[in-house]
Write a structure and sequence with these properties.
About 55% of the residues lie in helices and about 15% in strands. The chain is α+β, with helices and mostly antiparallel strands and about 130 residues long. It starts with a helix and ends with a helix.
Length: about 130
């Protein structure tokens, strides 16, 4: 995190804009806008419930497909735990519905995409510092 804070804002903006207007890293077909789309899942079995949110950089179409899959997973496998499965499943399903309904008509990368780019640049800088022969 310390290294990420030191990455210049201009470098982050430039890299985020390149990703935003480039091809989808998932389907390789769709060009921009590429942004972060998060899928939310829950899996339950009697007294065990596990839930997660998985951000992924993709086009809107690939993001919606991922959210639909996560929603189907949650609807079939989320309810079976007490008490958390019954409580968390509707929350995760609604989060997916909101994500799918969100319009992708922004003309700039989201702050989430910029945050991911910043962390990626910092991670690459750390790897290069540890192994300069790369």
């Amino acid at each position: 995190m310390l290294v990420a804070k030191q990455v210049p804002d201009e470098a982050v903006s430039r890299a985020a804009q390149t990703i935003y207007s480039g091809p989808c890293p998932v389907c390789k077909g769709q060009s921009g806008p590429i942004d972060v789309h998060t899928s939310h899942t829950v899996t339950s079995f009697i007294l065990m419930t596990s839930w997660s949110s998985s951000p992924r950089v993709s086009c809107k179409s690939c993001g919606v497909k991922s959210q639909l899959g996560a929603m189907a997973h949650s609807l079939f496998l989320g309810w079976w735990g007490f008490p958390w499965g019954i409580l968390i499943t509707p929350v995760q399903v609604v989060k997916n519905v909101i994500g799918m309904a969100r319009r992708g008509e922004s003309h700039a990368p989201s702050t989430e995409l910029e945050r991911m780019v910043r962390l990626n640049i910092a991670s690459q800088a750390l790897h290069l510092a540890r192994d300069p022969q790369r």
